[in-house]
Design a protein that fits this description.
Blueprint: E1 2-11, H1 15-26, E2 31-34, E3 51-53, H2 61-72, H3 78-97, E4 102-104, E5 108-111, H4 121-135, E6 139-141, E7 144-152, E8 155-163, E9 168-178, H5 199-206, E10 211-212, E11 217-224, E12 243-246, H6 252-255, H7 262-268, H8 270-283, E13 286-289, H9 295-298, H10 303-307, E14 318-327, E15 330-331, E16 344-346, H11 363-383, H12 392-406, H13 416-431, H14 437-455, H15 462-487, H16 505-508, E17 510-517, E18 520-527
Parallel strand pairs: 1-2, 1-9, 2-6, 9-16
Antiparallel strand pairs: 3-5, 4-5, 7-8, 8-9, 10-15, 10-17, 11-14, 12-13, 13-14, 17-18
Helix pairs in contact: 1-4, 1-11, 2-3, 3-11, 5-15, 13-14, 13-15, 14-15
Bound molecules: flavin-adenine dinucleotide.
Length: about 525
């Protein structure tokens, strides 16, 4: 087993991770950063539309704070929202100093490429940060997949996992930052990177760290659903000529009585639109029609991005669907990004508390930036001057765990790829935009039989080792989401129960806590604390 030592280990190299790593390195510490695949690029950050919500000339800090809280529908941690809105602008200025082309808009800042550029804003952002990272002393560990955290008496001592070629490793680190993103990829319909499967939530739960509000998932209404195309989202600005059609050639949105400016709707009502489109898509296919869009618009972003594709977007309507986009739930942090485990910090989408029941568009990137920096500073402060304290018995514990992962058994097992598809379909059907008691119970029953199949997989090939871990992580998170959704008997923000369609402040102005204790998932509800 390869043994690595560092002061600060940053798990995850999206925006939150890179910003945190650079911050910790600037304090003069030895820092390492991982990615499930490449550094920076296999991330949701690289797919982002590049909009950062923040105070601007015409949008005050108070406006930003109030809108964020309004979308959170009472479930946000106000002190974290205050930090977000107070520090957003200063952090954006820092990003501009790095050379990121950010331009002021009405409610924040947008990453924009040069005239005619068809690069996704997230790619522009991440390329600049990756360059910055390469010029720093931060050590890069691409393809280093973390399987679990090692904790000794409530203090973090390291993490272990496998490189993509199957080599096991153990990183002994004084401090660890979890910046592993959300879990949108667990749904068959999602606009996330394939590798974003909630590993962070799963390893935290297994380490005894509680997770909050996992049942709150944001869905994005307009995502490509053509069978052979990747599920990319249609991002604003939308051309006014954009239309939606069902199989009968009617506009399914107009037919539902919704009259809206899609540009505004995508920021302020994406949950409502997703639910309505999901309902409509249960009855038949939904298409987006861009045939009426004039030529000049196809030369500009984002349509020039679609134009690059082999798919004839200009000639024929194409299938769209709502899709899983963002997880509001996650790990609890204090103002310094500290978690309940000493030496363990967290930032980015993996964190809970800022968005409450629903996220205001643009707040995810701002969150990564603001709390990514805080996590880097706090982890550096914690690690500074601290001694390494790895004992022989802790090392042995790590080696034992690795052996357990590699243990082979005889027999036949289901193809893990087929199981992955099955569990993702199950997630969409039972934990998608519309949930209700019967479906949630049915989903849990079906999950039990998938669990048995997953337990039977043994790592015959290196690939199976990773697939099995992905399946175990998805299973754990999905069990939590289904159970938590069953318990919450109301609808709030992005969370919709068909059988309880109204918000119920009297009984449900509460956060949900998920925890594993002696192998059992414990779910409880807590009144809002700020
Ligand atoms: C298509 C799309 C467009 C979006 N547009 C916007 C926008 O315009 N504005 C906005 O505010 N938000 C937007 N969002 C949301 C926002 O992009 C994300 O919430 C944010 O980028 C998450 O960043 P992160 O650093 O927390 O995680 P990510 O960028 O998702 O990175 C996670 C990292 O963790 C690593 N990782 C995960 N598991 C492991 C493991 N087991 N071992 C090692 N490494 C691991 C991954 O490989 C990756 O490096 C968008 C999201 C999507 C999907």
């Amino acid at each position: 087993m390869e043994e690595i030592q560092t002061d600060v280990l940053v798990i995850g190299s999206g925006l939150a991770g890179i910003v945190g790593a650079l911050e910790a390195e600037s304090a003069g510490l030895k820092v390492l950063i991982t990615g499930k695949f490449s550094i920076g690029m296999g991330t949701n950050s690289s797919l982002a539309g590049g909009f950062f919500a923040a105070e601007t000339t015409n949008y005050s800090r108070e406006d930003h704070l109030n809108e964020t809280l309004k979308y959170g529908k009472g479930l946000s941690q106000q002190r974290l929202v205050r930090i977000l809105t107070d520090r957003a602008r200063e952090c954006i200025e820092k990003l501009m100093e790095f050379g990121v082309p950010l331009f002021e808009g009405r409610r924040g800042y947008e990453v924009k490429g040069e005239e005619g550029s068809y690069l996704l804003p997230g790619i522009i952002l991440m390329r600049i940060l990756i360059e910055r990272l390469k010029r720093s002393s931060v050590g890069l560990l691409p393809g280093a997949v973390i399987f679990e955290l090692l904790i000794d008496e409530d203090r973090i001592i390291g993490a272990l996992g496998f490189f993509r070629d199957g080599r096991p490793f153990f990183v002994h680190s004084k401090a660890i930052i979890l910046a592993m993103g959300g879990a949108g990829g667990i749904f068959i319909r999602n606009d996330n990177q394939k590798s974003i499967l909630g590993d962070g939530y799963a390893i935290a739960l297994r380490a005894g760290v509680p997770i909050f509000d996992l049942e709150f998932i944001q869905f994005y209404p307009f995502v490509l659903a053509e069978p052979k195309l990747s599920s990319i989202i249609l991002i604003p600005p939308f051309p006014k000529e954009m239309k939606f059609l069902n199989e009968k050639g009617e506009d399914p949105i107009e037919a539902l009585g919704i009259k809206c400016d899609y540009h505004q709707a995508i920021i302020f009502h994406r949950d409502y639109l997703s639910i309505k489109l999901y309902e409509a898509s249960q009855k038949g296919d939904i298409y987006c029609d861009l045939r009426g869009v004039p030529d000049w618009r196809w030369e500009r972003f984002p349509l020039n991005f679609l134009k690059k594709s082999k798919f004839p977007f200009r000639q024929r309507p194409f299938l769209i669907s709502p899709a899983a986009h963002f997880f509001m739930g996650g790990l609890k942090i204090d103002d310094f990004c500290r978690t309940d485990i000493t030496g363990l910090f967290a930032s980015g989408e993996i964190v809970w508390g800022i968005h409450g029941a629903n996220r205001l568009g643009g707040n995810a990137l701002t969150e990564c930036l603001v709390f990514g920096r805080i996590a880097g500073q706090s982890a550096a402060e914690y690690a500074q001057g601290r001694e390494f304290s790895l004992t022989e018995s802790m090392k042995k514990r790590g080696e034992k765990r690795i052996k357990e992962y590699l243990k082979k058994r005889k027999g036949i097992f289901d193809n893990p790829r087929d199981l992955l598809k099955e569990i993702k379909n199950l997630a969409w059907k039972y934990a998608g935009p519309i949930r209700e008691e019967n479906l949630l119970k049915e989903g849990l029953n079906q999950l039990d039989s998938i669990q048995k199949k997953i337990e039977r997989i043994y790592p015959e090939r290196v690939k199976d080792l990773f697939l099995k871990r992905d399946l175990e992580n998805i299973l754990l998170i999905l069990q939590a989401i289904l159970k938590g959704s069953l318990l919450r008997k109301e609808s709030r923000g992005a969370f919709f129960r068909k059988d309880f369609p109204n918000q119920d402040d009297e009984n449900w102005l509460k956060n949900t806590s998920y925890r594993i204790f002696k192998g059992e998932m414990l779910i409880s509800h807590q009144p809002i604390s700020n």
